[in-house]
Amino acid sequence: MVLLQLNFMDIDVLVIGAGASGLMAAWQLAKAGKKVKVLEAADRLGGRIHTISATDGTGVIELGAEFIHGNMPVTQQLLQEAGLTFYNVHGSMWREDEGQLKQEDQFIPGWNELAEKMRALEDDMPLADFLHQYFAGDAYEELRTGVMNYAAGYDTANPATASTLALRNEWLQEDEAPQYRINKGYGSLINYLFQQLTAAGVEVLMQCCVKEIHWQPQRVTVTAQTGDSYIARQAVITLPLGVLQADATAQGAVTFMPSVLDKERAFQQIGMGAVIKLLLEFAEPFWLNHEQMNGKDLTDMQFLFSQRSVGTWWTQVPNHRSLLTGWLGGFHAEEFRNATAEELKEAAIASLSDIFRLPEGELNRLLIAFYAVNWTTEPFTLGSYSYATIYTRQAWSVLRQPTAETLFWAGEALYDGPFTGTVEAALVSGMQVAEQLLAG
Ligand SMILES: Cc1cc2nc3c(=O)[nH]c(=O)nc-3n(C[C@H](O)[C@H](O)[C@H](O)COP(=O)(O)OP(=O)(O)OC[C@H]3O[C@@H](n4cnc5c(N)ncnc54)[C@H](O)[C@@H]3O)c2cc1C
After folding, report:
1. Which CATH architecture has domain 2-48+185-269+389-439?
2. For an engineered disulfide with 276, which of 147, 160, 309, 328 has Cβ 3.0 to 4.6 Å away?
3. Pocket around ligand 1: residues whose beta carbon is below 6 Å from it?
């Protein structure tokens, strides 16, 4: 009992989760003089940011977040502070159809007409309903399919529930926005935040899977799977939405005592996507061989789309690395939910073989490393990133209210700005929750 009391006196705020949001919140709180401890379930920091080194030593491989989608103020400010550099990513877009590769200039066929109708929309509705209302009939079949695939692929969203107004905000501001990659990868940003926390005396505990949070005003007792308990006046919860939506039997699920029913209901009103990211390192960038590509010059190719089972691919342009990234988003990821790594590899190679008209044996011979990350089944993530449904605005207002000035809520899913589902969203949410707690 005496020991518990000492612990209580020791820590002001427990931050649950050491992704971008949790680390940012912890840092802001520590800077303001709060005594903070961070509890993280995994054996590494960063959550959905996971940067590793390429086998061939040519750079980094991003198993999770990869791009800075536009001019994102908080991310870019933090990079600058950390002395980390980033570079502009630009290249051409290609589509494969029945073995023919052709260059395209729009992600979605009929983009201009779509943008016009989206701009004019006043009342929100799910994307699928919007398409059926404004783009009905055979003439628009290609547009409807393109838009559904884009929402599923890029936003990893379910078109049946995704908010058209939210997608409008995101798509229209991102159209033509510059894209960047961080030279040393997003992991370098996580390392920077960790260094700042260490310097500020904040302890970050890994392999500390929180199972129960007992709370009463101004007192929180957090129990981890290890049996250890931690006590503080307040807690900031930055768990991924997938974990918060999961039932109590899930490995990362946390039970709140007493329960926080208003928050639990609100979590269910935000959409959580699905994604599997595949990364294939080859001995050489075979797609740059004009002869093998039937004379097509793919030097500048960034994105490549097709109807194959793994249908979205990108290269590392402007860097000519021999790395191809395959992406299964939304319903495409659901189709492969239970696939093994070997099955995913076979699907990836079969798709590339059809797209580039190269024998599978040849591609397997060139393959030097393969990574498949099914984020939807990763126990401490359970999904890709959030998307707004037509009920999400209401949910955000509930989640932004702390519970009895004791439990505070953050994470990318709580961000309501234009950069939905991004690292920026996580960082901003982490900053805002710290400001909220400090203002209380
Ligand atoms: C494949 C993929 C690609 C992406 N690409 C991009 C991109 O290009 N650009 C971009 O900006 N964004 C991208 N994102 C989104 C971005 O990665 C996320 O929005 C952001 O990293 C989320 O940060 P967070 O702190 O909110 O959540 P997380 O990073 O998920 O952090 C939550 C933390 O909580 C921990 N946790 C879970 N359960 C428990 C528990 N019971 N106890 C203690 N800890 C627990 C988790 O292990 C995790 O570390 C991508 C995401 C994925 C999955």
Report:
1. 3-Layer(bba) Sandwich (3.50)
2. 328
3. 16-22, 39-42, 47-49, 64-67, 69, 209-210, 238-240, 243, 252, 254, 275, 277, 375, 380-381, 384-385, 411-412, 421-426
